[in-house]
Amino acid sequence: MVEIPVSRRALPRPTAWWVVVAIPLAVALFDPAALGGVLDFAARALGGTLPYILAAVLMIAGLKATGAERAIGAAFEGRESRAIVLAALMGGLAPFCSCEVIPFIAGLLAVGVPLGPVMAFWLASPLIDPPSLAITAGALGWDFAIGKAVSAVALGLFGGFAMKALSGLFTDPLRPRQSGGCGCGAPKMGQPVWRFWEHADRRAVFGQELRVNGLFLLKWLTLAYLLEALMVRYVPAGAIAGLVGGDGVFTVALSAVLGMPAYLNSYAAPALVDGLMAEGMSASAAMAFMIGGAVSSIPAMAAVWSLVRPQVFAVYLGLGFTGATLAGLVFGMIV
Questions:
Q1: Is residue 308 part of a domain?
Q2: Between 282 and 162, the higher pLDDT residue
Q3: What's the average model confidence in pLDDT over 161-166?
Q4: Which of 106, 123, 144, 275 is deepest in the core (most CB within 10 A)?
Q5: In this structure, is residue 86 part of a structural domain?
Q6: Pick from 295, 319, 300: nearest CA to 164
Q7: Mean pLDDT across 67-79
Q8: Strands (E) located in 186-320
Q9: What is the mean pLDDT of residues 126-146?
Q10: Is residue 304 within 8 Å of 256, Cβ to Cβ?
Q11: Number of compact structural domains in the chain
């Protein structure tokens, strides 16, 4: 009997694009009436994020082509603690949800900004901004709104300084990615050359970085928003409320965990949490649930997983869960 060797290339490895195609096909097969709503939700969310993606990839490509990324990375040397504080405070003003912040995190990491300030902005930004502060106050009261704002900055500081302490473990946080393959290589960088378009090698780097990073972010954020659409449609809020009606440590921690699949952006969350509290959710559990959902939703986790190495991903989840639980417990004791 003759064995026929099977080439590995005959079975291409699944990619995120396969899942992007498979999700609408599965919805069309099992719930055809929902297909239009799922696609519309994902398209609207992605359309709202496209300006951020464009800004981020232009920034990355421009900095790479000019050689300025080294100067930006050097600007944080010896100033990391101050940068963490500023990043946590700025995160409270930036109107980004947990998915919209991903392009900017990719840009900061790509140009060598240390993980401490990046993590501070990463954790604080999805939690609060001035418009959502007003919306939260209207739905849940100023005590809850101020508590969430303070929690956002505190979580940013906690995550930033924790990551600074662990920075020796993460010398290369980004996952390796395929370059554009143009063969030109990056130009030798000394002083930044701001008029990069006058040099053929730097124009090539700009075009390559623009294409590679643009496709990368578009792919993973498309997947993230399709997952978000599924979460919103098929995960009932009422099913979660019955599990988190108490005030104890376990209940608050469970609320932080359950907040992850129940995607909560900073504008829709207050009305949902108000309804959950009317069904018996405690204030401490509600705070943990809201923070856990804003920082570590499944769509955001999918995008983060594609961006950083597994060790950084695990720390990101651990900081989000720990911070959400602590915020809930402290808020419960105060109110």
A1: yes
A2: 162
A3: 90
A4: 123
A5: yes
A6: 319
A7: 61
A8: none
A9: 80
A10: no
A11: 1
